[in-house]
Structure formats: C-alpha cells, structure tokens
Amino acid sequence: MLAGSTITVGIRDSDLGTHGWSARYAGDDGYCVIWGEVYVPGDASNAAQWLLERYEADGREALSELNGSYVAVLDSAAADEAIVATDVVRSRECFYTDDPGVRLFGTDPAEVSRPITDPRLDRNGILEFLHLGVTLGEKTGVGELSRLPIDSALTVDSVDSLERFVYQPQEFDYATELAERLERALRRRSSLPGTKGVLLSAGYDSRIILSQVSDVDHSYTVGSPDAQEVQGAKRLADQYDASHTAFPPDERYLRADESKIRYSQGIKESLHIHHAGYTDEMEVDTMYHGLLCDTFFRGHFTAQDSVDVFGKRVPISRLDPDPDPIESLLEKFGYSRGASLELAERTSFDVDPESFVREAIDAEFDARGDRARTVQNTLTCVGIANQPSIPFHNHLSDQFVTSFLATDRELVDWHLRTPPEHRTTETFLQACKQLDGDILRHRPPDRPYDTMLFNEIERFVRRKTPLLSSFQPPWPDRRTLFERHDFDRQLLADAEHVHDLPARHKLRLIDLRGWLECWTGSRGRSIPWLSPPQSTIG
User: Fold this and answer.
1) Of all residues in the chain, what percent carry a pLDDT higher than 90?
2) Are the C-beta atoms of 371 and 270 separated by less than 8 Å?
3) Contact criterion met (CB below 8 Å) for 224 and 476
4) Domain containing residue 500
5) InterPro entries from the entry (predicted)?
6) Average pLDDT rounded to a whole number, residues 394-421
C-alpha cells in the first residue's frame, strides 16, 4: 500500500520488482506504482522510479516513453499532479466510480463497484455484451461504473485524452522496419525470468516467438491430439526444439467458473480464456503469446475487397475501396442476426437487436474518428479499443509473468505509421522471413498458399467436394462440448427458455450471470435480464 497527497493505491503481485515486470517506488516528492509488463529507456533498474523522475521533468510526455502492457499510478508533489494511466491501447483495463463521493479506481470491476450505494444495471452495456460479445467504449454492466478510455489518463476530477495513439501514415520500408522492431521487442522480452513457455498455435503469430526467444522450453496448445491445429503446433515446437503439450478440450475448456468470470470483467467473453482450466499443468514462470499480432501487423479489422467465386464472395488481398463501417465491424465482432433475434425473443429486453447493434457500432465508430483520418484506420482503431480477446491476457497475467509482444511501443508506432494497405500478412511474413528464413517450413494447415485468394478458393472447394476434407477450425467446437458436458442442465437448469439458443450466446448468458452474482452475491440482488419475456428490466 502506498499513500500520497492525493491517491492511495495497493498492488498485489508476487513478481513485484522483477525486471520487465511490476515496479514500485516511493521518494520524498511522491510515489509511483506500475502493474504489468513494463520497459523504460536506458539501463534504469526500477521502471517506477524512472517514470516518477521523468514525469517531474517532462510531465505527461514521459508516458510516451513507457513501453509494455500496464497500468501506471503516480502521485508527484514536484509535478503537482496525480494520475492513473493505462498503456496506449488499454491492454489492461482501469475501472472507476465517483458514486461513494470520492473517486475509486482499480483493475477488478467487481471490487471497484462494491461501494456503490444504489447500483443500476446498464441496459445498453449488457445488451452490447449479449449481442456482440463485448461492451463497447467506456461502458460496463453497471451504470455508475466506467472504465478509462483508450490512451487516456484519470485524475482526481477528470478523464483526459492523451495523444500517444493517433494514426499518422508515412512512407518507409515497412517489412524491414517491422523486422528490426520485432527483433528488438523480442530481445527486450527474452530477459524475463525463469522457465519459459509459449501458448502455441499452428498459425503465424506465436511461431515468431519460438524463432527469436531461444530459451523457450515448453509450448502448449488446447485441442485434440489428432486435430490439424495441434499437429501443426507440434511440428513447430519440434522445429525449434521446444517440448509440446496438447490439452484435450474437456469440461474445463468451456466451464465459466469464477477463475474465468473475474478476468472477463463482465464486459467480454470468458470463452477467449482458452487455457484457463489447464494452467495448473503449465510448469513455467514466464509465458509468451502472439495475441493481437493479427490486429496490429496483419490488418484483421481492415475491410477487405472480395471477388465472386462460384457464386460466393471470397476476400482477397486488397482493401475495400468503399467499405460500410457498420457492416464491416458487425462481421469482425461475429454478430449473428439470427441468433440475436432468437435471444431477443427469449429474454426480457424489449429491443430490436438489429437497430440496437447498428446504432451502438455507429456511435463507437464516430467516437474513434479523432484518432484516424480514414475509414480503414478508424475501423482498426475501433477493433483495438474494443478487443474481445483481452481476457486471454488478463488471466495469464495473474498466473505467470506474461509477455505481450503486440503492445511493444515500437511495434505500436509501426502500426500507427504504416498505411492500412501495407498492414498485411504479406508484409508480416516478409518481416518474419528476414528474421528466420525457415519460419514457413511448416505452413498453417488452413493456409497452404501465400495468397489469400488461393487459400479461400481451396477452403471453398474442400467444403463443396464430397471426397475432400474441410480445413478444421483452430479452436474446439463449442456446440459439441456444450452438449457433451450437459451444460444446459449444469449451468442453465433454471432457464429452460434459453436452451435452444446457440452455444456461444448461452455462454454469454452464463458469463453475465456469473459476473453479476460475483459482484452482488452478498446482497441477494435479483438478476432480471435472464427472465422470460413477460417481465422487463428498467
């Protein structure tokens, strides 16, 4: 616990003080605490001391030099300011409320919201979660509880936007520059302590870690031993002399117990915490992963043009010259019109889901426009600001010292300066091959070609040809596992009216109920949103 003139803060982290990880410092003129992965320029041994001293000299400009995935808190008498700031892409959330009469903040929304005297469920926040799998912007499921926006700072009486994450496209050698920055970013992270592991897929992103961090001993994949994804990951592990463990997807994979619910924070799906049931069997100190590399380096949220192939629209390696932002984002967030209509019919929200999600996406798109001048960059900014898979990293960070490559400051800068037409898989692979010419010895099982169009054509032909097997999806089938382990009876026995919904939407209902019960359990508060249509929510 540290107390300054304006802020009191506590941190719980058994690795506090580890180089590249959480740090604290208290001096005569104030204190600083940083939670998460953090690197600073030069040879400073204490990142918190470096930030406090640099902040006293340069003010908020010092935050631009902080590198990693973190929440920083400082109270500086010399700078006459106390602030809380996340990293530039908000890879770690900070929640706050003013309801008790003094501003409270923290990284666990259940704890931050407990002192709220008369909490109100936020109808829009809950609906966004149920229909899109993510609560957009700064909302939560509780009306009096907010979260710090992307690239911003919290003070005692304001929320101030910063300018660290603004798109400024330039011309340079995109692949070579990315290769050099990847090399430096991975070199920084190679000094993390102890035995090292990586969550390994058969795709492109996590293999670059195996290629560049020489002392990764163990790799882990969730999937059946005979699945294409697992076999591909095993070949990569063998190539780079790492052991490989595959965890069969059993009941632990989907079960949303408190160990997953708390890290999804009531705003994102616990489904993305693929590894949660297996961490006790991962015997490493530091864990690496390739999360969000597809978003920052390979244009996951940019809108691709498409061509007609046998009556089906197939995406190609060219940007859509005139994208519809709402349609594009609904597709990227995995919105299902049919499933949402069915959900609306079976629950108590008297809302047309189609018009609701369109208005919500439109408002969020408009809110990010000041950070990007083009539609394509704004689409990506919306995706980064509302990244559904962040619970994956949240959970890992409480179990291991966890590296988050994609949040490296140099790599984020590359993302912001590279035009969207060059943030592609082709550019990324050119960079990777500059670092390791053998990195594509084993190609991803569903991407046998360098060209997106050829991969999509083969995927289509395999689906339509009786004698050919289709590419397997990278993750286990949710519906099969939900039915195999009888989760309707185990987890939704009191809600038969939702049993016919798709598995993913039922998992969202389970997540939301679990988080609200975690927060309100001691109060015996009812949870009316799950009721059949005859009752309503205020």
Assistant:
1) 76
2) no
3) yes
4) 489-530
5) Rossmann-like_a/b/a_fold
6) 97
Instruction: Retrieve residue 365's tokens.
Output: 């798109």
Phi, psi of 307 (to 5 degrees): -130, 160
The C-alpha atoms of residue 240 and residue 247 are separated, in whole angstroms, by 20
**Size of the chain in residues:** 538
pLDDT, tens digit, 9 for 90 and up, residues 139-173: 999 999 999 999 999 999 999 999 999 999 999 99
Decide if 285 contacts 401 (C-beta within 8 A): yes
- Calpha distance 412→410 (Å, rounded): 6
Within-domain flag for 435: no
Handedness of CA 360, 361, 363, 364 (dihedral sign): positive
End-to-end CA distance of the chain: 39
Instruction: Copy the structure tokens of residue 16.
Output: 């506090």
CB-based contacts of 284: which residues, under 8 Å, 6+ apart? Answer: 194, 195, 196, 197, 217, 218, 400
Q: Maximum Cα–Cα distance for the chain, whole Å?
A: 74
Q: Which of 439, 526, 482 is nearest to 205 (CA)?
A: 439
Give which of 71, 96, 68, 69 is closest to 85, Cα–Cα: 71
Task: Classify strands 81-86 and 30-39 as parallel, antiparallel or unpaired.
Answer: unpaired
Does the predicted model carry a pTM greater than 0.90? yes
> Does 271 reside within a domain?
no
SS3 assignment, position 338: helix
Q: What is the dihedral of CA 230, 235, 238, 242, to 10 degrees?
A: -40
CA angle 401, 70, 188 (to 5 degrees): 60
C-alpha 310: how far from its chain's center? 36
Q: Are 226 and 206 in contact (CB under 8 A)?
A: no
Q: What is the pLDDT of residues 220-257, one digit of tens each?
A: 999 998 899 999 999 999 999 999 999 999 888 888 77
What is residue 308's predicted lDDT score, i.e. its pLDDT?
A: 66
The CATH number given to whatever domain includes residue 133 is 3.60.20.10
- Please report the pLDDT score of residue 521 as a whole number: 63
Of 134, 161, 188, the one marking the end of a domain is 161
Domain C-terminal end among 144, 161, 178: 161
152: helix, strand or coil: strand
